[in-house]
Amino acid sequence: FPFRLFPLREHGMNWRAKPLTCQEIQAFKRSEEVMQRFTRAYQLMLRFYGISLINEKTGELKRAENWAERFQNLNRFSHNNLRITRILKCLGEMGYEHYQVHLVKFFLTETLVKETLPNVKRSALDYFLFTIRSKEERRELVHYAWQHFRPRGSFVWGPRDKLLRYR
């Protein structure tokens, strides 16, 4: 059977790859070896995108040394955005919600604050943000995005009245 590096409970682009079952996810989570491999795979993909995992416990990220070259690739090839969405969803399935939050915030910062990834901005706002399982964490990230989005009046990812009242 074909397998995915970041499997999900839903069908993806590869029609031959079977979706994960809840039982398989639980078995993965119980295996220390599987979870270590998963973390290594995540770090490998981050390096490919020009990102470094600087704290395995918290999920904190920073730009890798090769970030400029890798960000050019991210800006040029939008199919990477589908893979990033898949990785984010899989992080949630595997119990790494804290990794999700750091990765989404990283992309929001790079797209909205530093403006290094203009061609990833739409995916970060339309898809990456909404992979976050925790409603509170998602609200915080939507608020963060709203604070940095320009022009602010064109922000459509949250109700303006709630964004103004947040916190």
From TrEMBL:
Q: Which GO terms describe its cellular component?
A: membrane
Instruction: Provide the leader sequence positions.
Output: none
Q: Which GO terms describe its molecular function?
A: opioid growth factor receptor activity
Chain ranges of the Opioid growth factor receptor (OGFr) conserved domain: 5-163
Matching entries from Pfam families are given as: OGFr_N
Its name, as the record gives it, is Opioid growth factor receptor
Question: Does the record's keyword annotation contain Metal-binding?
Answer: no
